[in-house]
Each structure stands twice: as C-alpha cells, then as structure tokens.
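_Per-residue structure_
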Amino acid sequence: MTTLIICSIVVAILIGWLIFDYKAGRKNHLLTSKYTQYPLRKSNISVFIDGNDFYKDYFENIKNSTTYVHVLFFIVKNDKVSHEFLSILGDKAKEGLDVRLLLDYVGGSKLGKKKIQALKKQGVRIAFSHKPKLPYLFYTSQARNHRKITVIDGKTSYLGGFNIGKEYIGQDPKFGYWRDYHLRIQGEGVTDLQQQFLKDWYDSTGENDLNEPRFSTVSPKGESTHMFISTYGEKLDDHFIEFIQNAKQEIIICTPYFIPGKMILNELLEALSRGVQVKLVVPMGKDHPLVKEASLPYFGPLILAGGEIYQFFYGFFHAKIIIIDDKFCDIGTANFDKRSMYLNDEMNCLIYDPVFIEKVRSLINKDMNHSELLTYSAYEKRPLTKKIKEKFATMISHFL
C-alpha cells in the first residue's frame, strides 16, 4: 500500500511538472515568436508529386550550383538515398561552395555522429534546430522545426512535404508509394525563403548573415503571384479559420493528419451549413502511432453534415494543401493538425495563380480517384478497441 501511495505521488508530481513546463514554456515562446507574413511576390512555380521526379530535379540543381547551397530539412534518414544526397553536399563543399545543412534536432537524429563528422571534414556546415533546453525541457523537446527549405545560388528554391529518405521514393514496404507535393520556386520569392533559412540558422547557431549582400539579391519576377507565411506554433490556426470563413463554394483540404481541434471543426461545419462543399483527402493508412485514431472523431460530424472524406489507398498520402473556391491555394510544410498549429515551425506558400491552381486541382482529382470515399455506415462500424484508442489519442492529440 505504501509503495502504491508513493508511486501515485510521483506520477502526480510528474504530470504536474509536465503541465507547468508546457504552459510556462509556451507562454515564454509566444513572447519571442517571430511570425512573418512576407510580401506578395511573383515567381515561376513548379510542383512535384513523385519522389523520384523531385529528387532527380533537386539533386541535379544542387550539383549545378556555383556559389552556395542552403538546406533545411525536418528529416534526413541514414540510408542509401540520404547518403547520395549527403555525398552531393560534400562534393559541393569540397569545391569551395558555402554549403549549410540545418536539421531538426529530433528529425535529424538518425544521421549519426560519424556521418556528421565526415561531412564537416568535407566542409559542410551542419547545425541542429530546436535542441531541448532548460528551463522548459518538456516544451522545447516537443517544439519541432518542420520546415523544408532549400536555396541554391539565390536563384532556385524548394519548399514542400518531401524529406530525405528511401520511403519518399516508395522503397519502404511499410508505406509503399509515397504521394507528396513539393514546390520549386524561381523568381522574387527565392529571397524570402533565403531570409527564412538565415533566420533559422541564426536561431540555431548565433551566426547572423541576414544582412549579407550576397544573400539579399532579388531575382526577376515570374508568372505566379504568391506569398509566404512563416509560423512558430501560433497564428496558423487564424489563417486556416480565415480561409474557411472566406469560402463561398468549395474547400479542399489535403493532409496526412487531420486533427483540427473543435474550433476549426466548427468552422468547417458552419461552412457546410451555408452550402460550401468540404472535401478532405487523407491517407488510408498511417505513418505514426495513434494519428489515425486522433483524426477519426472529427470525421463523423463532417460526414453527417455533408462533408466528403477521401481515403487515399494507393500508398501513403503526405500532401499539405488547401484550395478555396479554385481561387487560392496553400501548399507548404504545415499539416492540418494541432502540432503544426501550436507547436511546430512551419512555412507555407499562398498561391493566387488560377493556372497553377487548376493544375494542382487536376492532380488532386487524380488522387481522389485513387481514394475510397468514407461513408457514415463504414465509419460507424469501427470496433470498440479502436474507439477506445480514439479516446486516448484525443487526450494526447496536441503532441501527435
């Protein structure tokens, strides 16, 4: 009995500390947040939906670089695909280029010390973002840099959902084919992605190159009007709500993790009540424990209100897209979940080019053709064990 009491006290203290740490850490974080809405720009924007096509273009542009390569990824695995990527970076560094690789502390943890040291010897400058630190150890261990930015010679840049690893080209049997959306941006917008990389590099290393002239050149205008938003665990939900409230005809949301919270769910239900079509495209499977279970409680109310939920079955679906009335398109790194809204650093591109939006819409239509429309009768047939998991997943959905 004494042991049980002691254990209960220890657990209660631990839970209390975690709650205090998180709340105090978030309060401190919001005081120093660097949310940025960049100016409207005009760039030439291409979209990649297949990992092999993306890597071919991406690796080739890095190989052809002449002055610098700045790379930020959430995840770089320790596998054959990653080694090819890192080898290219090492070769460019040996040529004398300024090559920097910034990785999330957790997402880049599989790289290994030997590989990191080898890259440094070749001249690659490596840093890690969001290392856990006191006094808010729990909060800082949860806040992740989820951005995926590359800038090459100040002329070509990339932003989107792909990381670096074999699963992104369909070589992991656990996932099969991997569907994602990643942008190549050439034009005025490159300078904004460059600035964001340098901000993150400064936050991680203390090295301030934000006013360095060679990183401040503005490329010629392109065809597509767009704007970047950079979020730090705040204001992303405000943007999502604004998108939904402005919709007149149709809302399309593509996301691997649909965990919007009650407030945004209610906005979607309100949109349905005023005659706006709401369509979700989500994966049939999952790549993390409990994320599917955390999504399911939101599906029922949406289906009953007339929403359509398409479950992509042709592999794993990792796209992060919102399209409003075919007039506005949001593509970037942020998922439609609480973690992206309230914890992660994210970067999204808001695109206002009807020709580009039409192209993306046609790609999503093809994804819907490789999806199963979830019916309420099928939704209701979930076994009791899954419903129990959903309750637990909902409790911790903030951290999934």
Summary: The longest strand covers residues 41-50. Residues 200 and 206 are 10 Å apart (CA to CA). The chain has a mean pLDDT of 94.
